Amino acid sequence: MESGAPKDRHSVGQGSGGVSLLRPPRIFCLTMLSIVFWALIFYFISTMQGDMASLLPKPSAFSLPPFRFGRDRCVGRYIYMYDLPPRFNADIARECSKFAAGVDMCKYTANEGFGPPLPPGDCLPEKGAYHTDQYVLELIYHSRMRRYECLTTDPSIAAAVYVPFYAGFDAALNLWRSNLSARDALPRDMVEWLVRRPEWRAMGGHDHFLVAGRGTWDFVRGEGGGWGSAFMTYPAVRNMTVLTIEASPWLGNDFGVPFPSHFHPSSDDDVLRWQDRMRRQERRWLWGFAGGSRPDSKRTVRAQIIEQCGYSSSCKMFASTTGVHNSPNGIMGLLESAEFCIEPCGDSYTRKSTFDAILAGCIPVFFHPISAYTQYTWYLPRDYRSYSVFIPQDDVAKRNASIEETLRKIPPAKVARMREEVIRLIPRVMYRDPAAMGVTFKDAFDVAVDAVIDRVAKRRRAAAEGHEYQDSVDGQHSWKYDLFEPGHKDIGPHEFDPYI
Ligand SMILES: *[C@@H]1O[C@H](CO)[C@@H](O)[C@H](O)[C@H]1NC(C)=O
Ligand SMILES: *[C@@H]1O[C@H](CO)[C@@H](O)[C@H](O)[C@H]1NC(C)=O
Ligand SMILES: *[C@@H]1O[C@H](CO)[C@@H](O)[C@H](O)[C@H]1NC(C)=O
Major place of localization (predicted)? Predict the structure, then answer.
């Protein structure tokens, strides 16, 4: 798995901190120059002599491919994207005015899912800032994939197959219906369409993936009824990789990807400048909470947070009566002025605010491992203490633990290290402008595509050797597979066992 990866990235030292973007070290540039030089020499020789092949040892079994400089950058990275009938995506997106009661989501589905651009504010970058909604990932991934550098129209060379079905938008329209077969109508239609395709039959769908801009819980209704559609329970979809904003720890084929935040940069420099700004940011508050109360919260961690923050002179939160928490600039202002940002479970385990906090260079404080640690294993370091604070929610809700005391006990040098780690994560969890050119950093889309390709490749290799690759199980231990260190294989006791 990838999640140790941020540590291994090249970084150019700027002070002791280092920059998280990939900047090639000088030796790499020199090597590239010399490769280009020699390639040119070879090119001249080959055009003069006509046939390059005569200079090379003869390959045994197959003829020489056409001469190219270096390797095809896309080998092993090609994606085949279905051109789906519009009833599975574009037609649903057009129903945006019906996605949510009282909110016209059409504003937020504009700009390929980024929503309306924000005017320059104090707390967001001058360009690339948008009012982005939390449920729009299907659009963001689809529009990015249309411009993916290694898109292919030939499924036989594809490393993975992308299904641009807007499962979450369909859920937004149909989840509330009491008629279960109506709720499942389009998901069932989608699956029946897929399994008839020759592209599907090649690997039984094990190379297929899709993105659902809602949590897994909306798609795993049991036969007896209950919440959601049954989409992710269908055998075909169980063979696929599904990216959601909140994965289940028990399913095995779904993976959490970052919620979209409010900054969608167009260049490496945009990101480097923002990271620098967050490093220098003055943080007046020890802790901050960008959230409101819930009606049913008496002895919940959320009620405790609001109570404890209210008593403290080092904590900042929104007064729940003002509308300010709907303003991205207001939210970012709060998160940027705090050392620690409190991220309790929201309506579900995860919150968009977690990614707003990372963007703000604010150290997140979690109360449940499913809020992040078992969730974004492709994105966040395995050592969660390196970038976040974990306070078990029962300590706060049942045992009256003081959040502020816990945070004050962390030595300032450790706080600085954690913040630097958070700032280093920023590019990995953002969604860049799909039209941007010449960007070298990997954003959340790139990380997801790499991870899917890796997951499929393992299955492909195993199938070639005549067995089935197993990197997860369904059921209670599935989350442990996602947290394995490379090479590790045994399901043993885990420190998160008491919570999951
Ligand atoms: C439920 O929905 C299905 C499919 O849309 C429809 O055929 C059926 O008549 C509906 N049943 C009821 C009771 O409305
Ligand atoms: C799912 O994959 C299995 C092999 O792992 C295959 O036997 C089965 O046919 C696939 N299901 C569908 C619906 O294609
Ligand atoms: C919880 O702790 C606070 C401060 O430590 C104290 O004032 C309060 O009375 C405690 N509440 C309960 C229910 O023990």
Answer: Golgi
